[in-house]
Amino acid sequence: MNTKVLSIKLTEEPNCHEVLLLIGEKQHIFRFTTKVNQVGDRQLQTTQAEQRFSDFFKFNQRVAMNVSQLVVKFYNQEVVELPANVGYFVTPKEAIWNLKPFKDEGKQEIGNGSKEHLIDNGQTEEMNQDVRQKAMG
């Protein structure tokens, strides 16, 4: 489902924003809080959504990141053009269906289809001797 940020507005609570999202045909409101802390000679700004937002977007991290970036821009008084498309929301079922199988990069294919370690025993022994030398000297 296409996801759009329809509005971002300040709440009565300081440094807090309400974000209105349209996901498919349904509207959702989430709350974001921004904190600014002094760390040494620098200011560190963190913007965090309520837990319900994190749970809702568990399988849609890219969309969540795009929403968060818009809230940060709004907080920093940068231009934010709304409504803004922030990505395609997938259900947990769709997310699992789209998973790609894990590919073991630590092994290589051999002509006959078998797999073999990239490092053979001779190389392993050579590495062990090198480690012993460094440890002793």
Task: Describe this protein's structure.
With about 140 residues, the protein is an alpha+beta fold. Helix content is about 30%, strand content about 35%. It has 4 helices and 7 strands. The strands form 2 sheets. A 5-stranded antiparallel beta sheet has the order 4-3-2-1-5. Strands 6-7 form a two-stranded antiparallel sheet. The termini are far apart. The model is unreliable at about 110-115 (pLDDT under 50).
Brief overview:
This protein is α+β, with helices and mostly antiparallel strands. It has four helices and seven strands.
SS-based structural class? alpha+beta
Mean pLDDT over the residues: 83
Q: Estimate what percentage of residues fall within beta strands.
A: 35-45%
Helices and strands, in N-to-C order? EEEEHHEHEEH
* Uncertain parts: 109-115
Describe the sheet with the most strands: 5 strands, antiparallel
Oligomer: single chain
Shape: flat
The number of helical elements comes to: 4
Radius of gyration: 24 Å
**Ends: how far apart?**
62 Å
What portion of residues is helical? Answer: 25-40%
**Biggest sheet: strands side by side, in what order?**
4-3-2-1-5
DSSP strand count = 7
List the helices and strands and how they pair.
Blueprint: E1 2-10, E2 16-23, E3 26-39, E4 42-49, H1 51-56, H2 61-75, E5 84-88, H3 92-97, E6 107-109, E7 115-117, H4 121-136
Antiparallel strand pairs: 1-2, 1-5, 2-3, 3-4, 6-7
Key phrases:
five-stranded antiparallel β-sheet, single chain, alpha+beta, 4 helices, 137 residues, 36% strand, two-stranded antiparallel ribbon
